[in-house]
Amino acid sequence: MKRIQIINGPNLNLLGKREPSIYGAQSFDEYLQDLKLRFPAVQLDYFQSNIEGELINKIHQVGFDYDAIIINAGAYSHTSIAIADALRAISTPALEVHISNVYKRESFRHHSYLSEACKGCIIGLGLDVYRLAIEHVVNY
Ligand code: DQA
User: Fold this and answer.
1) Which of 21, 23, 24, 137 is the most exposed place for a label (fewest CB within 10 A)?
2) Could you state, in order of their start, the residue ranges of all structural domains in the chain?
C-alpha cells in the first residue's frame, strides 16, 4: 500500500471559511473524506500546522519512509528557505500544491522557495490539486 503524507501549512485549517471566493467553501476535513473514499488503496495521512518548525518536523518524520509528500505550505512557500532545505534533506519526493492560481495574484506569491526542492507542482485548480497529486503518485 502506498503511503502519502499531505502537509498543509498556515491558515489552511480555515479552508471553507477563509476567503471562500479564492479557496472555495469546502473544509479540508470534508474534502479529505472524499479523497479517502476515492483512494481506498492508499494510506493517506494528513497533518496541518500554522507553525513553520512543526511542518519541518513532520517532513523529517515521514521523509525517509513514505512514498510521497504532498505539501501546501501556504504563505511559507514564499518565505521559507528552512522548509525548502527540509524537502532537500529527505529522500521521499514532494509535490507542491496550491489551491489558488498564485500567478494571477500578488507578485509576492509568484515565487516559491519550495518548487525547486519538489518533484513537480500543481497549482490553481482548487482543491482538485490534491487529487491530481495523488493520481500522479499512484500512477508513477
Ligand atoms: C496558497 C497560496 C498562498 O499564496 C497563500 O499564502 C495560501 C494558500 C494556495 O493554496 O493557494 O495560504 O498556498
Assistant:
1) 21
2) 2-139
The answer, yes or no, to whether any atom of ligand 1 lies below 6 A from the CB of 2, is no
pLDDT digits (tens, 9 = 90+) for 96-116: 999 999 999 999 999 999 999
14-45 pLDDT per residue, tens: 999 999 999 999 999 999 999 999 999 999 99
- The whole-angstrom separation of Cα 59 and Cα 46 is 12
CA 36 / ligand 1 centre spacing (Å) = 23
Burial (0-12, 13-18, 19+ Cβ within 10 Å), 37: exposed
Q: Where in the sequence numbering do the catalytic residues fall?
A: 23, 98
Residue 72 CB–ligand 1 contact under 6 Å: yes
Q: Which fold has domain 2-139?
A: Rossmann fold (3.40.50)
